[in-house]
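Entry for the shared binder. Reason: the reviewer on the internal report wants the predicted structure included alongside the sequence.
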Amino acid sequence: MRHESIAITCPLQAVADQRYKRSIELESCSMQICHAAILAVAFELTGSAVIAADANHGAELAKRWCATCHVVSDDQKQAVADVPPFAAVARNPDFSPEKLAFFLLDPHPKMPNFPLNRAEAADIAAYVASLRK
């Protein structure tokens, strides 16, 4: 003779199970919202995408692409006379890394059109900002 078990469920247990599952879902959702909020605040505090800019890489790029016309470092001896040195650009009262990065990405007639991506433009801008004294 085979015994079959009969499952008897308590209505209160079913309600408790549903509440538990819902609390887990809400906790997961709350963590996602929290992570998004942290990222938004970090971005807002820095004020720009220059948050991850690498001034050392910017110095390398400047020496490779910009030194033909601009004085890009203290050890550089010559450049074209009618263009500002990077240190002078950095000391300009209106200077900001964000403005310079945008300027570098926008084609303009006085400068050659270098194929910079956003990260490279931000790196060069961070390097120029590091020259501000």
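Summary line for the report: The radius of gyration is 29 Å.
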